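Protocol step 4 of 6: structure prediction from sequence.
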Amino acid sequence: MSAAVFLAVLALLAALAPGVASAQPSYEPPVWKPAPGQNVTTVRWGPMTIPAAPSMEDPMASAAMPDHGAMPAGELDNQIALDGGCNPLLSTWGPVSPYKVSCIPMSIPKPCDDCYITGILPDLVKKGTDTSVNMNNGGMLHHVVLMNLNRQDATCPAWGGFKPINWLGLLNGGNERFFAAGNERTIAQLNTAGTYGYRVNKGDRWGLIYHLMNYTQQPMDVEFKFTFTWVRKATPVDPVWLDIDQCSDSEKKIPAGYSDLEWSTPVLRGGTLVGVGGHAHDHSIAVSLENVTKKKFSCVSVAGYAPGSTSAPSGPGPGTPGHPVKANTVTTDGHPGTSLDAYMGSVSDFSPCTPMDQWDVGDTARIHATYYHPTGVDDAMGIMVAYLKR
């Protein structure tokens, strides 16, 4: 995803004054700082080998040109890893097959059982090390999605349609997407005091969907390194996945210039919106969450880029509510495992939101992903994960 997500101590203004085209205020990403008294556990998943990038002379090189960067890349594209093994029908049955997904069995240990996750620090590292894999050493965490295979997804349940995420839930018993990260590795902190948390039951099985990229001429051995904060008692929250290409591969075509991708859905689970985070790609301005019924933007998750980045939006947004004029310029990165320089100008942050807004069953939720792209691409993303306290 460059993913995602989320949920830290700083909130954006819910909306800008109508018609006012002002720049974003100065902004620096929140840092990873577990609160005293919370448990901290690091787990590793993998390893995976990302294939080498084809050489520029290879006829297949043009087919491997990604939307991030101008060089061909080797890829593990939307690979699925499931704890406990894969259903052989997953890559051949129904609407899943056109996406050419592959599934591998993988041990995916959880940080705890009978607990509540309060924070997540995602990373992709070189196998057996703590060295982050990023643009500066030829790799990229395009996106990774964490799923609970014992629960149904709020917006893409198994019985809810005929798209890949629906089928994934049908074939594996569950598909609840509860966290995601892109290469920006936004830190998730539901609540620094541990008041809110995502429930993990003993016996829950987890799965991953990931897209990893390698710009070097050698295969790259990598693994996920995720650090979690957790407590034994907390107020439970439900994850709600919102996506411009809901239940599918999360990618849509955008033209050159300004664009606003949208997707709407009725709210099926009411509650208090305690945290939201966004993910999109280079040249994105923001990902926003609107309650159409209440005529309010609950979150405007703004992209962050290093000063002078050529991957930043190439023009302005309209400056209307939920649609900022500019992305943020950042000079630091809150992730302890990497530095701002490691992104080499690629998007490095999406600001999180803690709106505490009430959402009611029957409200209409709408996600907006705004870009100003110099050329247009076929695979732009716009994703949000929201956490609701019932």
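Step 5 (inspection) to follow. The mean pLDDT is 87.
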